[in-house]
# Entry
Amino acid sequence: MPTRVPLVATKGGHWRRGDSFPVDGRPDTLRAHCEISLRTLETDRIDLYQLHHVDSQVPLPDSVGALGQLRQEGSIAAIGLSNVTVAQLDEALAVAPIAAVQNRLSYGDPGDLPMALACAERGVAYLAYSPFGGSAGPVPQAALTVARRRGVSAHRVLLAWLRRQSPNIVPLAGASRPATIRGSAAGLDLTDQDLKDLCAPAEQRTPP
Ligand SMILES: NC(=O)c1ccc[n+]([C@@H]2O[C@H](COP(=O)([O-])OP(=O)(O)OC[C@H]3O[C@@H](n4cnc5c(N)ncnc54)[C@H](OP(=O)(O)O)[C@@H]3O)[C@@H](O)[C@H]2O)c1
# Structure
């Protein structure tokens, strides 16, 4: 059986302070955040380090340049971006290799799908966050229908749908219980009938 190599990924430049969420993409701040992560994770190299949010006050090439420097020094193995557009991805790619983009995408909220496909064209992985629409997200009826017929959870159906959209999509399922983690890791091959049932237009997917 092949051994799965664990990949440690984390982000910098955006964090929570009480009720506020500051953004700071200055090179010195990103370096400081990376150093905190290295110490906290007790490692000398982070596999994937992501710019959590573009800072409108800092030119993107400066933020990405700082991550490129960390990569050259060996503190991080690969650079990722989060919450970006295609134009921002292209701007970043002109500065340093970008391994992954982490944006919000789910069956009920598929608006960022063109971005995932643009990433595929550029050889960039797309990490889909909030793949169930977040913890308070309603489960779409079509996913429940397929889940009932297949005898699996609707969450497994939603993850399988995402993976079917493009091979570069990696759903980032949030979970706080072993049972839900195991459920999300189980995988599912969707049939033609499943896909037919799931092909409702985007605006009809989220129940009122
Ligand atoms: N880059 C960004 O700006 C950004 C923003 C938001 C989120 N994220 C990341 O995205 C990831 C996931 O997003 P999210 O937590 O907002 O939303 P989510 O993954 O769409 O939803 C999480 C909810 O789904 C439940 N769940 C997970 N797997 C399940 C399963 N197999 N069966 C039934 N229920 C299941 C969890 O339950 P339990 O908790 O009970 O297990 C939790 O309530 C997190 O790692 C988060 O850090 C990134």
Notes: The beta strands are 9-12, 46-51, 76-82, 100-104, 125-129, 169-172. The chain is about 40% helix and 15% strand. The helical segments are 27-40, 60-73, 86-93, 113-121, 141-150, 154-165, 178-185, 192-197.
